[in-house]
Design brief:
98 residues; mainly alpha
């Protein structure tokens, strides 16, 4: 199955987490804000983020043009891009951007 067919089964929430996560991840400040948010002791998905942090960072750091290749590489490791997107935690509340 090609990536486009796999991704059509994603929820809009997962696609939004990928798109906006990548936008923020591109800048050092955005990356720091996300990490501080997800690693905050009161974030309800903190432990899950820590468990899957390497794969989440890999997906957010990847060039969107190479998602097909990324998906193939993840499949070799027992993952898929679709499954990895499910592990990106939500942003709960608001992140202070000032």
């Amino acid at each position: 199955m090609i990536l486009a067919e796999k991704l059509k089964y994603l929820s809009y929430d997962d696609l939004a987490k990928l798109e906006y996560g990548r936008l923020l991840w591109k800048s050092a400040r955005g990356k720091t804000l996300l990490l501080n948010h997800w690693l905050h002791p009161e974030h309800p998905h903190r432990e899950r983020f820590i468990e899957f942090q390497p794969i989440i960072e890999r997906v957010l750091s990847a060039d969107p043009k190479n998602d097909e290749y990324l998906d193939q590489e993840l499949e070799k490791e027992g993952w898929s891009l679709r499954a990895a997107l499910r592990e990106i935690p939500p942003i709960i509340g608001r992140i202070p951007f000032r």
